[in-house]
Amino acid sequence: xxxxxxxxxxxxxxxxxxxAQTELLPEVIERDNKQEFPQELVKKMGDLGFMGIMxxxxxGGSGMDAVSYVLIxxxxxxxxxxxxxxxxxxxxxxxxxxxxxGTEEQKQKYLTKLATGESIGAxxxxxxxxxxxxxxxxxxxIDQGDHYLxxxxxxxxxxxxxxxxYLVIAQTDKEKGHRGINAFIIEKGMEGFHIGPKEDKLGIxxxxxxxxxxxxxKVPKExxxxxxxxxxxxxxxxxxxxxxxxxxxxxxxxxxxYELALKYSKERKAFGxxxxxxxxxxxxxxDMYTDIEAARMLVMKAAxxxxxxxxxxxxxxxxxxxxxxxxxxxxxxxxxxxxxxxFVKEYHVERLMRDAKITQIYxxxxxxxxxxxxxxxxxx
Length: 380
Ligand code: COS
Prior knowledge:
The model has no long low-confidence stretch (mean pLDDT 97). 52% of the residues lie in helices and 15% in strands. The chain folds into 3 domains: 7-120, Acyl-CoA dehydrogenase/oxidase, N-terminal domain (Butyryl-Coa Dehydrogenase, subunit A, domain 1, Orthogonal Bundle); 122-231, Butyryl-CoA Dehydrogenase, subunit A, domain 2; 239-378, Up-down Bundle (Butyryl-CoA Dehydrogenase, subunit A, domain 3). It has 11 helices and 10 strands. Residues 122-217 form the Acyl-CoA oxidase/dehydrogenase middle domain. Its EC number is 1.3.8.10.
């Protein structure tokens, strides 16, 4: 057992840290206020290889492992969770989904652009009445011989307005239940595909979240991913890796808030000394550090499982459950340590607290993670 990071991993982490400090930090508050994320920054992340971290270089990716992915996600998320969710969705839902299950033609046509950051992707599973209950898809894709006819609505789609390619889950044969669900690649601009208004959110406000509408969209047969009826398993397998990304995002939000609270507590004075010298604050820092380290172990274990080729359904669910709870709990504590300043935007911790909440919700709520974990425990 070796808990040390390799030289290569340390270099990757430092590159992500440098990028986050120099490129993301300067205008992160403005982006949160204005609810936008500029295209130049997406391009820069693409140039650094952050948009196709685990993709084979033959498809334009960086060919790194899942541990590297987690390290990059943590560093970006310490500063800007809106940037990191864009990276996470593109990498672990869209690129992974296409690389693992797409045809060679689909990889050449779509993955090569997504992995370099030339194009961005979105993953469309959630619906007004099917988020956690993912088998209850109301979006339909009816087989018309040489194409499918897609109709329905998808909600809370990350990268929804700015993506070029969308992986859309839809019900082809209702009689067959989850075995009648398919996944399709939809291109922006296809007739009948409409992008709805942007959501006004509590957190990750820089990230671009939309409702999408599909009205009689003709989807060519070759845009289906996998065999007929593979769509639900495609979504589940892809989300297992996505949960490692969101767990790493939560870890980054927590450790970013911790670092700010630690620094602040060594500078701010009260009762004649730095507040870190008061046990009330020192114990909070101790709890934060311990919980963050515990979350890091679970996140790294999930990434390691993926790199080893082990099943990571359980480990990714445990990592996301733990890291998102730690992020929520300790961003609140970071605000508390900052006192009145914690409530003010320029100190960053209030944004991290708002950003933390979504990590307990998207890519499977904490309650869904407990379903996955408890089923695993009871099966063993
Ligand atoms: N990998 C491969 N197959 C999987 C799988 C996985 N991780 N998880 C489930 N499946 C398969 C099952 O084996 C089953 O197939 P068979 O009937 O052929 O055996 C099928 O999928 C249905 O599984 P199950 O019966 O467990 O479905 P449930 O309706 O009980 O739902 C949960 C299972 C709750 C785990 C699933 O719906 C889920 O993860 N929901 C949350 C989805 C989500 O993350 N939404 C957020 C929006 S996306 S940002």
